[in-house]
From TrEMBL:
Name of the protein: Protein kinase domain-containing protein
Species for this entry: Rhynchospora tenuis
Biased composition (Acidic residues): 653-676
Biased composition (Polar residues): 623-638, 697-706, 736-747
Listed Low complexity bias regions: 607-618, 780-795
InterPro entries according to UniProt: ARM-like, ARM-type_fold, CIK-Related_Protein, HEAT_type_2, Kinase-like_dom_sf, Prot_kinase_dom, Ser-Thr/Tyr_kinase_cat_dom
Chain positions covered by the region annotation Disordered: 607-827
Domain Protein kinase: 2-284
HEAT repeats mapped onto the chain: 366-404
GO molecular function, one term: protein kinase activity
Length: 827
């Protein structure tokens, strides 16, 4: 028989090829002559239940009752009545015999008797779950009797099934009929198919077929008796075999016993209305029933009631049966959060319940709701998600984080609430490893650049810490563009001492990413300044960092000298020490997950503590590194750093051969910093020489016609002095020396960086015959000029060719000097 049904439903039979469902194994029990099968949808593979009823001919009495059940189940809808999906009736063959079969497809359910054995509950938990189930069946019966004026006729264990969420639902509507109270004198059967009901389930009036008495009774009289039979069967654990067994009340709970006796009253008119059983019975007043009822009408509750309820729910959930919590409460709670009826505290309860699920079920039942909640505009929901992100962050796939989660989380970077900005920043410790390089370099680093100049010092500190922790996820070009600028130019110059400490320690942890040139020219000079920092903790960390980087430099020196890389000795210890103390105080709110060895913090709390950006409690939580800190070794100096890639979508600009990155307005936000410029040795020497030059007027040397003027003698030396152009220019002598040393003007222009803005020297208008011996009183630069020649020149012609003796007019020369000089000449 089973083989025949399986072939028919799967499409290989002669009449049911188009049924969009597949049949599986049957359950051990079902109501009446029906067979209950497991099934799946051909479209999406979702589970269903398939009920089949077969007869030898289309006029079979069972088939007629089955058609009545199909019609009633299709038309009657209630939350506690089995949900109808599909039905059909086909003709087939079982060997030589012809068979007529009715199929009903419903939501996936399981027979109540089998489910109770599977749950195997006991004590208070059993009574609470039974109370909830009876409450649901009583509501269904009350709906049929009081609202629809229908009589089910056979309420018992076999007519009740259980859904995947452990809800009890009523089915088996083959006997279902209208309550005909208007025709009180009629003796015709009111229940057309009452012969399907077992005699042990029939009340006295139905057993005797007293239809007139039944019509005079309340509509619920027959089904109230059936509820009594159901109560007996579930608490005794036995199938009712005869009516006399109902008198055995030993297994019935004392709080339910009075109502049980009223349901089984011998007088139909005195039997308890199922609606009163729901409202008045003490047995239904328990935590499970009250909790589920509250959640079902959550939309009608105000915010105060919701907050109070969800704050108590974690403790209540601990006392309820675990399977009921996971299969019943968890789906209701997830649905309430998803559609906005639940308050933010419900998320904490959802995550606590979700932690009891296996990973695969957590990903299927809880994670989709959480991902949808990231799009919520409710700030309380967003805060709760960020506070508990460590509990579900590892379960999020990289694609979901990059495409669905991060775009919504990123809005918190610019939020007006400092507390939310801080939580958003901390969440990146979990999310950053799952981001693509495009999102990491193009979006995240731009947000971090703005947070590094945030008005809250705690946020600035945490930003530096986060950059140190996610450096391993950046590509080589991004690290060169970001790390040194972020740590030295901003963090080390921050006015907040813990921010400076974080910058130092971040440099030590990421030391393996810097080449020797960067360490010597950009890191050591900036760290050395902090050895005189007002804060003692900053000074201590600065000395530790100097020891580490100098050790790296020493190893590089030894390698270049001997050609053999020395072992990482003390420097390794220094770096490990730094690693153990870096970033420890900055992100303590993140709960450690997994084994301690798997989540060792990059650094532990040291001597500094920081106040929170929004409260008086501890500032910022311990950050944990996701990868072990790499110790700097000499192998990192054996390779030449490759040139960084050209400007790309990450917005950090170019950084070639370890040079300072050229950050434009679009370069991720680190464009307003002034990177440390590598000093040129020649310029430094000239600057020092210029600083040592005396300001006062030099004494006049003794007159010596055989020695050339000092100004001509120092011409070559002054060519390399970049400071000479901002001093008063030395005038050319009015005479020609005996042994002149002409200087190349082109060479001077190439070497003098300041030549374009210096005042030009005055031109001579006379050509001396002999070296001058007396100072020219008309020269306004005499006070600061080099000693004049000791001999007076013979005046030349105005053409300056030496053909005349008339002295040239000094007025022209004085005006040229006055016009270009920055000194005071009296004009």
């Amino acid at each position: 028989m089973f083989k025949f049904l399986k072939e028919v439903v799967s499409g290989s039979g002669s009449g049911l090829k188009d049924l969009p469902y597949n049949i599986s194994e049957p359950y051990a029990s079902a109501w009446g002559s029906w067979v209950h099968y497991r099934g799946t949808s051909k479209d999406d593979g979702s589970p269903v239940s398939i009920f089949s009823l077969s007869g030898s001919s289309s006029q079979d009495r069972h088939l007629a009752a089955g058609r009545n059940g199909v019609k009633r189940l299709r038309t009657v809808r209630h939350p506690n009545i089995l949900s109808f999906l599909h039905s059909t009736e086909v003709e087939g063959f079982d060997g030589p015999s012809q068979k007529h079969t009715i199929y009903i497809v419903t939501e996936p359910v399981m027979p109540l008797s089998e489910k109770l054995k599977e749950l195997n509950l006991g004590g208070t938990q059993r009574d609470e779950y039974y109370a909830w189930g009876l409450h649901q069946i009583a509501k269904a019966v009350s709906f049929l009797n009081n609202d629809c004026k229908l009589v089910h006729g056979n309420v018992c264990v076999s007519s009740v099934v259980v859904t995947q969420t452990l809800d009890w639902k009523l089915h088996a509507f083959d006997v279902l009929s209208e309550f005909d109270a208007n025709n009180e004198a009629a003796n015709s059967p009111m229940l057309q198919f009452e012969w399907l009901v077992g005699s042990q389930y029939k009340p006295m009036e139905l057993s005797k077929s007293e239809w007139a008495a039944i019509r005079k009774s309340p509509p619920w009289a027959i089904d109230a008796w059936g509820l009594g039979c159901l109560i007996y069967e579930i608490f005794s654990g036995l199938k009712l075999t005869k009516t006399e067994e109902l008198r055995n009340t030993a297994s019935i709970p004392k709080s339910l016993l009075p109502d049980y006796q009223r349901l089984l009253s011998s007088a139909p008119s005195r039997r308890m209305n199922p609606s009163k059983l729901i409202d008045n019975s003490e047995f239904f007043q328990n935590k499970l029933v009250e909790t589920i009822q509250f959640m079902e009408i959550l939309n009608l509750k105000d915010s105060v009631e919701k907050d109070s309820f969800f704050r108590k729910l974690p403790n209540i959930a601990e006392q309820l049966p675990r399977e009921i919590v996971l299969k019943k409460l968890l789906p209701v709670l997830a649905s309430s959060l998803e559609f906005g009826s639940a308050a933010a505290p419900a998320l904490t309860v959802l995550l606590k319940m979700g932690a009891w699920l296996p990973p695969d079920q957590f990903n299927a039942k809880v994670l989709p709701t959480i991902v949808k909640l990231f799009a919520s505009n409710d700030r309380a929901i967003r805060v709760s998600l960020l506070q508990h992100i460590d509990q579900f962050g590892d379960s999020l796939s990289s694609q979901i984080v990059d495409e669905q989660v991060f775009p919504h989380v990123a809005t918190g970077f610019a939020d007006t609430s400092a507390f939310l900005r801080e939580l958003t920043l901390k969440s990146m410790l979990i999310l950053a490893p799952k981001l693509s390089q495009r999102t990491l370099s193009g979006s995240l680093l731009k947000y971090l650049s703005k947070l590094q100049v945030d008005e809250e010092p705690a946020i600035r500190t945490n930003t530096t810490i986060l950059l140190g922790n996610i450096a391993s996820y950046m590509n080589e070009g991004t690290r060169k563009r970001v790390l040194i600028n972020a740590f030295t130019v901003r963090a080390l110059r921050d006015t907040f001492p813990p921010a400076r400490s974080a910058g130092i320690l971040a440099l030590t942890v990421t030391s393996s990413y810097y080449d020797m040139t960067e360490i010597a020219t950009r890191i050591l000079p900036n760290v050395a300044v902090l050895t005189i920092d007002p804060d003692s903790d900053v000074r201590t960390k600065a000395f530790q960092a100097l020891d580490q980087f100098l050790s790296i430099a020493r190893q590089n020196h030894e390698k270049l000298t001997t050609g053999v890389e020395s072992k990482v000795g003390d420097s390794t210890g220094v770096q490990a020490n730094a690693s153990s103390s870096l970033l420890g105080w900055a992100m303590s709110s993140l709960t450690q997950k997994g084994k301690a060895s798997d989540h060792a913090p990059i650094v532990n709390a040291n001597s500094s503590t920081v106040s929170s950006a929004t409260s008086n409690s501890s500032l910022v939580p311990d950050l944990q590194s996701t990868e072990p800190v790499r110790t700097a070794s000499m192998s990192s100096f054996e390779q030449i750093a490759p040139p960084s890639p050209t400007r790309s979508a990450d917005g950090w600009g170019d950084a070639e051969d370890g040079s300072v990155p050229d950050l434009g307005d679009e370069d991720g936000g680190w464009d307003d910093v002034d990177p440390f410029e590598e000093p040129k040795p020649t310029s430094l020497t000239n600057i020092q020489a210029a600083q040592k030059r005396p300001v006062s007027q030099p004494k006049q040397p003794a007159v010596n016609s055989s020695r050339p003027p000092p100004s001509m003698k120092s011409t070559i030396e002054d060519e390399d002095d970049p400071w000479g152009s901002v001093t008063a220019p030395v005038p050319k002598p009015a005479t020609k020396t005996l042994n002149p040393k002409p200087a190349s003007s082109s060479a001077r222009n190439e070497d003098d960086l300041w030549g374009s803005i210096a005042a030009p020297a005055p031109k001579s208008t006379v050509k001396p015959l002999k070296p001058a011996t007396v100072n020219d009183d008309s020269d306004p630069w005499a006070a600061i000029a080099a000693p004049p020649p000791t001999t007076k020149a013979k005046p030349l012609s105005s053409l300056g060719r030496g053909r005349g003796t008339k002295q040239s007019q000094p007025k022209l020369g004085a005006q040229r000097i006055d016009r270009t000089s920055s000194g005071s000449s009296g004009f």
